[in-house]
Amino acid sequence: MKHWIERIADELSEKNIDKHVIASGTSISGSIHIGNSCDVFIASAIGRELKKRGMEVETIWIADDHDPLRKVPFPLPESYDKYLGMPYSNIPCPEGCCASFVEHFEKPFLGVLDDYGIDIELKSGFEMYKEGVYNEYIRTSLEKAPEIREIFNQYRREPLADDWLPYNPICEECGRVNTTFAYDFDGDIVKYRCDCGHEGEMDIKTGNGKLTWRVEWAARWKIFGTTCEPFGKDHAASGGSYDVSSIISKEIFDYEAPYPVPYEWITLDGDAMSKSKGVFFTPAQWLEIGPAESLNYYLFRSKPMKSKDFSPKMSFLDFMDQFDKVEKVFFNEEEAPSEKEDKKFRKIYEMAQINEGEPLPFRPPYRFLVNAYQIAGNDLEKIFTILKNNSQLTKSFEDKEFSDLTETELKQYQERVNNVINWLDTYAPKFVKFQVQEKSVPKLPLTDEQTTFLKDLASLIEEKTFKTAEELHDAMYEILEAQGLKPQKGFQAIYKMILGQKQGPRAASFLLSLDKDFVVKRLRQEA
After folding, report:
1. Are 200 and 173 a contacting pair, CB within 8 Å?
2. Pick from 243, 247, 464, 511: most CB atoms within 10 A?
């Protein structure tokens, strides 16, 4: 069984190329989220797979930081609309904390690349223009403007103007780059007019302008010798950016277009991610609630063009159940449901793993920790005892005591607890949250039948030691059946007396997580 990343690497390996350049790029138009950073994660994974095969590989990321601002990104005020149309590189930092608008939105993303094991060479579109990297390609594009117009017109309803040039100067009057129209040139001097009413000239060597996108993309491929590039599905549409740039690359710059890896957008709770509307979720936010490998797992568990919807809310617990299962199968801590699933789990985790060759990380079940933390607080030793009493430790840890954990395992353990704390504080629905009422018995009404059930349950727990939650669960049902009490009413009585509310975590596991004497007294309503 081969993963789709391996299949891409297979096809690239078959090409007669000495060095592969895997490129990715992101427009710095606001916060970089898990949707528009897919380029980087996929490029990094492909590059890593090729390196495993002993091939020479360079993985690069180009910040499209010279593009025009088209919408004011969240959470900037509406007053920032005065910068619309200006290159990101010429816009000031919105909070005065960074050198520029670009650094403000780029920094949080670049700051977590090491956490995700992403090693890439960083490039800046702005710096490339300023340093003259594009100059030769600008000259070629201006000279071959008629041919480029003809290529564009094949995919347009309305043909471009006969004097249209594939270059946009930055207007020296209003500072905008998306409102200028270049119509003539003499050597390196481009003549233009702007919607603001200004007419002027600009020397391409100043870097105060840029090639139109599809020409720029084609030029970039040749500049870097790009052999493979992931990109969003919008560029992959028939007659879209990739199709047009591929023709320009071959016919204008004499370079074969790179191997394409299009991917589907990621939605957030069913909505399209939007930097201007504040609908997004960043790689840094992910690290607050889950390990880096879990984002890799999310991105790599299905083919890139398969629809993906992410929610950090209640369904995140289901996702973490899946991730925990796959990780434990990979490390032979648990068995997969079938031989086919076993191979699938191992292959996906192999692609998601960051530190290859490292031992099993100590990550107790995420969902269980949501309850254990609310019982024990941030007391790792107490939580460990709860995990042990509820058989929540896998075979490598089930015979260990808290004092046996290594420094690395303790760090991993604390990170997971911190993830759970952040999830509870930020995304958990109210019904998941609870607090043990330790000081006094909650004054909530019980029926006579509920009171009798609690007393019988208290006696059972006092007299017998239960090794597993399943044993206690079965014993509780025997009492309920003997009394003819509906399970819902019985469990409600437990939650009322211990939590002061009608619902809570799974009753048997919950009771085994608490101090035995406290449980017995509370069920008898004594303290």
Report:
1. yes
2. 511
| Class of the domain covering 1-127+264-307 | alpha beta
Q: Domain map of the chain by residue range? A: 1-127+264-307, 366-432, 448-524
From the number of C-beta atoms within 10 Å of its C-beta (0-12, 13-18, 19+), residue 214 rates as: buried
Query: CA 42 to CA 298: how far, in whole Å?
Result: 12
**DSSP assignment of 97-150:** SSSSHHHHHHHHHHTTTTTTT---EEEEHHHHHHTTTTHHHHHHHHHTHHHHHH
Task: In whole angstroms, give the CA distance from residue 438 to residue 527.
Answer: 8
CATH 1.10.287.3240 correct for 448-524: no
pTM given for the model: 0.94
Q: Which residue has the tokens 């793993």?
A: 353
Structure tokens belonging to residue 158:
């309305």
Write the DSSP assignment of 145-170 as a string of letters. HHHHHHHHHTT-SSPPPTT--SEEEP
Instruction: Find residue 201's DSSP bridge partners.
Output: 191
Contacts of 148 by beta carbon, 8 Å cutoff, 6+ apart: 141, 166, 215, 248, 252
With a CB cutoff of 8 Å and minimum separation 6, the contacts of 156 are: none
Q: What is the pLDDT of residue 28?
A: 96
Task: Name, in order, each residue with C-beta under 8 angstroms of 204's C-beta and a sequence gap of 6 or more.
Answer: 135, 138, 139, 167, 188, 189, 190
Burial 250-277 (b: 16+ CB within 10 A, else e): eebbebebbbebbbbebbbeeeebbbee
Quick check: helix, strand or coil at residue 92?
coil
Instruction: Give yes or no for a cis peptide into 75 (omega within 30° of 0).
Output: yes
**For 294-325, what is each residue's pLDDT tens digit?**
999 999 999 999 999 999 999 999 999 999 99
Model pLDDT for residues 319-352, shown as the tens digit of each residue: 999 999 999 999 999 999 999 999 999 999 999 9
Diameter of the chain measured on Cα atoms: 97
Tell whether residue 191 is among the known ligand binding residues.
no
For residues 380 and 319, the answer to whether their CB atoms sit within 8 Å is no
CA distance 204 to 188: 6
CA dist., res. 277 & res. 290, Å (int): 25
